[in-house]
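Reviewer 2 asked us to include a model.

Predict the structure of this chain.
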Amino acid sequence: MTDLTQTPIRAAWKLPKVWLVILSIPLLLAIFDPAQVGPTLKFTAEAFGHTAIFIAFAVLAIGYLKATGAEAVVTKAFQGREVRMIFLAAVLGGVSPFCSCEVIPFIAALLVAGAPLSAVMAFWLSSPLMDPAMFLITSGTLGFDFAIAKTLAAVGLGLFGGFAVKTLARTPVFTDPLRPASQGGGCGCGSPFKGTPQWQFWSEPKRRAVFKDTVLENAMFLGKWLLLAYLLESLMLTYIPADWIGTFLGGTGIGPIILGALVGAPAYLNGYAAVPLVDALLAQGMSTGAAMSFMLAGGVSCIPAAVAVWALVKPRVFAAYLGFAFVGSVAAGLVWALLA
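Predicted model (structure tokens):
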């Protein structure tokens, strides 16, 4: 009998922490502010429903790319002349479907194969900032213009870092950049298919299985993070005074943009959850330039993306990676503030 009663408790503690946080928010509201439970859940449901079509399209697109083996196309960016590699790496990094854990073994293999650090840096900087799913969610929440601007900024940031490394390649910072015995790691979510993509994947049972598993995994991933983000967005709109945000992150000039980049690193959850949070901050008075610098700096320095770099290169190269991210994010924020 003891085993039977303890099993549900053990099972509950095995829930991912994100789901525990999601469940705890309405429970805490019920204790401390019962009147706010209904409005918070209503806001979350309506916001999630608004982006549901984008989520569905995104997870299907990711499943298709994985099942066809289209990720293999990305490796072609690291062949040929260095300048060409930097351009292609920045562009493909900004649109590729790689998750952060896939970047580690992929980049490790490229570095061991002799790909120049300049092209790798371009890919590293642009890859965590945008992918097909993130573009759709960003477009659905913050608008098509912002999604396009962030995509261009991701590519621009990759180009900036890539050409900076090329220019400074002979300096002590970038000589002998790899950690001893750097090896690939990750979560095992890399594509099992190599070579030429099979666009009509449904003709092969193994590819159909990969499509199904990828769709389910990404639906759960996006679903949990967006649920948490919309809950937090509702809490921010309810409990954080708008004049606070307007004071620190609003207004014009470079100050709010720099602060947005600095705040982005510790406040960032991931690229998907950040979208509704930035939407809430904008509603509270955050400047458009600060929103852009927040998302770019936070995306590059968030834990999964940063670990992918830290695991493979020496601290001085990692510091350069963060420096490129900060400078590029502030520059993109200034440009977006002028255009928007």
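The mean pLDDT is 79. Residues 225 and 318 are 27 Å apart (CA to CA). We have added this to the supplementary material.
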